[in-house]
Write a structure and sequence with these properties.
By secondary structure, the chain is of the alpha+beta class. The chain is built from three helices and four strands; from the N terminus they run βαββααβ. A four-stranded antiparallel sheet has the order 2-3-1-4. 10% of the residues are buried.
Length: 93
């Protein structure tokens, strides 16, 4: 499954991005990390695109209060909006 995640950042984009790049949640365990894309929207918002996501594994990491990223996420993230991305045919005229 392909996802687009809007991340609302509590700290700053640069602080959050440093943590994201360090990958304490081990994204390669639930997504194809070679295809991951990150974009800065503004100082407190980022967009993350993940590919080939195993939703069950991702959910276990995100929702586990004992996860190695739980405290880090609480420090840097206000909230996330997660969207499923699907390929579609171009609109016809």
């Amino acid at each position: 499954m392909e996802l687009l995640i809007i991340v609302h950042i509590k700290s700053s984009y640069d602080s959050w991005k440093a943590v994201f790049d360090a990958d304490p949640g081990n994204r390669k365990e639930f997504a194809d990390e070679s295809l991951t894309r990150v974009g800065k929207v503004d100082e407190n918002t980022a967009m993350v695109q993940l590919f080939d996501v195993d939703m069950q594994k991702m959910s276990q990491m995100i929702n586990n209060p004992n996860s190695p990223v739980a405290d880090i996420m609480a420090e840097h993230i206000v909230s996330r909006e997660i969207y499923k991305v699907e390929k579609m045919a171009p609109p016809s005229a």
